Amino acid sequence: MARLIIMGPPGSGKGTQAEHIARHFGIPAISTGDLFRAHVRDKTELGLEAGGYMERGEFVPDHVTTDMLKLRMEEADAADGFLLDGYPRTVIQIGALDEMLAARGQPLEAVLALTAADDELLARMLRRAHEQGRSDDTEAVIQRRLELYRDETQPVLTAYSNRGILLPLDGSGERETITTAAIAAVERALAA
Ligand code: AMP
To answer: What is the pLDDT of residues 8-33, one digit of tens each?
Structure first.
């Protein structure tokens, strides 16, 4: 079973891609953003804590995010394979994930990295804000999220690239075309 990560700036379509790619490989797509949004919706203690950060486009603190992810990873469906969407987003989180996977004896197999031009990202996010009413999709917050991606998450891409497991993928164009390319890239990596 595949153990994968999908990365990409906000608005790159990584959530949608994650769903399709995970279905192909028969693994759960685990999105920390979706987990947080469920907590906010259910007004849990964690949701109350995370919600403020999310509204401002800031990252939720590493330890809070990692504790939540650990619990999700312990569920049966994620025992042998998973596609992480939105984690790790900081270099600290890489270390936390490494520890988690080392304890399970499970190396990471591939990291998909979607790319797209900033103007396309902004347009997609403003469209999504309109369609879904996400409170973190206003223009100022979007700019902050793009900035954090550049400053905090690009170094994560560099780290995985240095490990030789990064699979860069053009994230502009048709959804199906990108999914097909992503699946092919992962299959090549798994066979190597
Ligand atoms: P997303 O749906 O992946 O764009 O995530 C929405 C929001 O959830 C982010 O803007 C952060 O506030 C928070 N979040 C999701 N994943 C993480 C993470 N790995 N580390 C910190 N904050 C996160």
So the answer is: 998 899 999 999 999 999 999 999 99
C-alpha distance from residue 27 to each of 2, 79, 82, 150 (Å): 7, 10, 5, 29
Residues with CB under 6 A from ligand 1: 10, 32-33, 36, 53-54, 57-60, 65, 86-87, 89, 93, 136, 145
Q: What is the tens place of the pLDDT at every residue in 79-105?
A: 999 999 999 999 999 999 999 999 999
CA distance 149 to 160: 15
Query: pTM for this structure?
Result: 0.94
Active site residue 134: yes
CATH of the structural domain 3-27+80-191, one choice from 3.40.50.10860, 3.40.50.300, 2.40.110.10, 3.40.50.720:
3.40.50.300
CA distances for 3 relative to 39, 152, 186, angstroms = 25, 23, 10
